[in-house]
User: Which sequence fits this backbone?
């Protein structure tokens, strides 16, 4: 358990604009696009998200989520699906 947690922290990427923290076992950034794979966790001002894969556009705030997607917005809004696309700035 601790090994997995330390790997997640090791690949943490904090992005500017709206505060967005993305944790994953594997993450790569090219330009404004961040691709995160394996046990993805995303925190922002409004969202807590988990997924198998995420593609985040830092410039637009859009994130595409793939595989076992769980989204929590505030205390009352929850979603579970295999795919989602949302804007973390709104």
Assistant:
């Amino acid at each position: 358990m601790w090994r997995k947690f330390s790997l997640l922290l090791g690949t943490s990427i904090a992005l500017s604009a709206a505060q967005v923290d993305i944790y994953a076992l594997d993450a790569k950034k090219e330009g404004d696009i961040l691709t995160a794979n394996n046990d993805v966790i995303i925190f922002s001002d409004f969202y807590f998200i988990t997924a198998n894969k995420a593609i985040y556009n830092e410039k637009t705030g859009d994130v595409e989520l793939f595989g076992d997607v769980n989204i929590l917005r505030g205390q009352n809004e929850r979603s579970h699906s295999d795919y989602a696309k949302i804007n973390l700035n709104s």
User: Anything to note?
Assistant: Strands lie at 13-15, 20-23, 26-30, 33-44, 47-57, 62-73, 77-87. DSSP finds one helix and seven strands in the chain. The longest strand covers residues 33-44.
